[in-house]
Amino acid sequence: MKQILMLLFVVSGGMALAVEAAFLGPLGETIGRLSASLSIFLIGVLVFSLAMVILMIMGRRNYLSSLPKQPKWLLTGGLVGFIYTIILTITTPLVGVGTTMVGILCGQISASLVIDHFGLLGSARRAIDRYRLGALGLILVALWLIY
């Protein structure tokens, strides 16, 4: 049951990314791509800050103090979010939300297969097998069909 709930949780996260792309495209066309991307990050920072304050009020431990002790390469994830958001803002008005999301999914699956196969970035090793390659192939077909 927990596995099914987690799958539903990640699917809803994917749905949220499609909604984000739908917001970013028109916003980027109106106020500029960088301004639209920045606005998304600023709102995210505000919401996360509020959540951290609530957790501190509830007496939960604040782990931010251990952030400077982490390997610096782990902190580069924010750059990936920046790049991703800019890509959404640029491509969504040009090719639509559906094509953008399938293209993003194709890139995510391609990179995740390589990361899993070699155990990169601290992840557990999971060999690329014919099922995983087949799934990637189907996503490529979906990208071709939706475009």
What does this entry look like structurally?
With 147 residues, this protein is mainly alpha-helical. Helix content is 77%, strand content 0%. The chain has one domain (2-146). The protein has helices at 2-31, 33-57, 77-95, 97-118, 130-146.
β-strand amount = under 5%
Mean pLDDT: 92
Structural class based on helices, strands and sheet pairing: mainly alpha
Instruction: Report the helical percentage.
Output: over 70%
Oligomeric organization of the protein chains: single chain
Q: In total, how many beta strands?
A: 0
Order of helices and strands: HHHHH
Please mark out the parts with pLDDT under 50 across 5 or more consecutive residues, or reply none: none
Rg, alpha carbons: 18 Å
Number of domains: 1
Taken from the alpha-carbon principal axes, the silhouette is globular
The major β-sheet equals:
none
Fold blueprint:
Blueprint lengths: L1 H30 L1 H25 L19 H19 L1 H22 L11 H17 L1
Helix pairs in contact: 1-2, 1-3, 1-4, 2-3, 3-4, 4-5
